[in-house]
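Because discrete structure vocabularies remain unfamiliar, it helps to consider an illustrative case, giving the amino acid sequence and backbone structure tokens:
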Amino acid sequence: MGIRLLPPGLINRIAAGEVIERPASAVKELVENAIDAGAGKIDVVLSAGGRNLILVSDDGSGLSAGDIELAVERHCTSKLNGEDLLAITTLGFRGEALPSIAAVSRFRMTSRERGAGEAWSLAIEGGVKGAITPAAHPEGTRVEVRDLFYATPARLKFLKTERAEREHAVDMVARLAMAHPEIEFSVIGDEDRVLLRLRTSPAPRQKGIVDPSPGERRRARLAEVMGRDFAENALTIDAEREGIKVSGFAGLPTLNRATARDQYLFVNGRPVRDKLLVGAVRGAYQDFLARDRHPMVALFLDCPGSEVDVNVHPAKAEVRFRDSALVRGLIVGALRQALAAAGHRASTTVAAATLHAFRPNTGIGGLRYSAGPAPIAPYDVGPYELAEPAAAAYQAPLARVDQGPEARAAESSVQAASEAFPLGAARAQLHGTYILAQTSDGIVIVDQHAAHERLVYERMKEALAAKGIERQMLLLPEVVELDEAGAQRLGARGAELAELGLVLEPFGVGAVVVREVPALLGQIDVRGLVRDLADELAELGDALALKERLEDICGTLACHGSVRAGRALTTAEMNALLRQMEATPYSGQCNHGRPTYVALPLADIEKLFGRR
């Protein structure tokens, strides 16, 4: 079979397959063109998820008749000056988007250049271009794409449902909108249903701020896209190193999700899905979240064009950095610094979920009074009869109780501590597990085991980084029986475990003997600790050193060395735990991302009882 030159129409359809994978791809390219044109308002209309119709209109600079004819030709662009692919300052630059879309659809572009007296329109069907004609249109551009992929019907078979394709398209617009809060966006679906509407000035004007700063505008735009919970519980990220800057917002660890969908990453205003950046976010949060939980972040990386190559993927969804280690270190460092500065802070969603779980007592399932014909008189408790002395005490006014000077002094001390410390003063221990503390404006409920686990973990990391973890010799060495494979794994890692304060050695077949343990763990269940470590090592495998998986091993050690649920604590011990939490970074969540405490404002508690 001889070699032959493919016809231009087929070449264009093959090339279009690299750029336009689904309706969302076409929406992305058209919206990016509108952004590059300096639009202040971009409207998108979708029908059947974009299969039947994609309409994108903007109020940007517009195009002349000659520019319209060139814009739909392959590799024609106004966005590259010269031949330097590292000097790209726009979202588009390849000159492939419009001809690719036009090659597989019924396409029409209408545009009026800013300041021009008339508009022009050009129709293309399946890559066959018609004649340009005058049209009536305001300043800006309107692109109409009908019957996408009608010229390549095989591609239609690979599209998802209309709903799925619509969601992909809306998500794409939302991503672009996050990077450009100065532009107004809207997406309208079938039957004029508003799928997305983002205003340009949604930031609340508080504390005398008349014109919100760019950071406040960005936070407000992110709140519209990612939800108010994110805006209220996001830490500000702002760091720079060697001309590369990272900014944006990162959610507190207790505000996490089951997937990484709510991780938005931008490079020079371009939304990307880059493995390096995703890995950097995972690395920054590895001490705070379980493996199956993911943080919410929106990070914006700005760097010189010479430091990043955006020309590595036809859809421009991936980038490559000249110094990837520098970029990763910058992101990890910026995130960790923000998390450390947050101290013991936990997300407000924890309190909101707690309050939502409360239900006012309606009598159903609670204390029931007898249903007699006569109304219940004051202090008449129906069938729950009280003995005479108890009834008298019940009816005695509380004001007559004299607490005495010592009780009044203690109460005064509690009140002072409540006002002086963020986590307040301990008032009680509930079910041997939860510490109830009073603050100046509410109450705090602390999970004593989760909180102490974080404290022990941070102390272990500090000790390991400074001078090594001090060890405590067991008076009687502890023999722990395991399966043969588990004992071998622990024996092979004996030297590394010794650095973490745990000294053990093989003891026959299927057993180890423990001679020393980390001193800061105190009295622990040695057998339980060793068995958990054996399971942990089975999951980690042999590829990594334990120091590289410090969060896993230290987390297991810390869990066994922390105050257990069910242990009674004195008031002094409870207050000491609260003060340590206030002084320890990241103490708002345990090593698995669960909250260590819940803060309930007094105002919200009063609402539960109808006082507000």
Q: What stands out?
A: Residues 8-198 form a domain with the Heat Shock Protein 90 fold (CATH 3.30.565.10). The longest strand covers residues 471-481. Residues 165 and 517 are 56 Å apart (CA to CA).
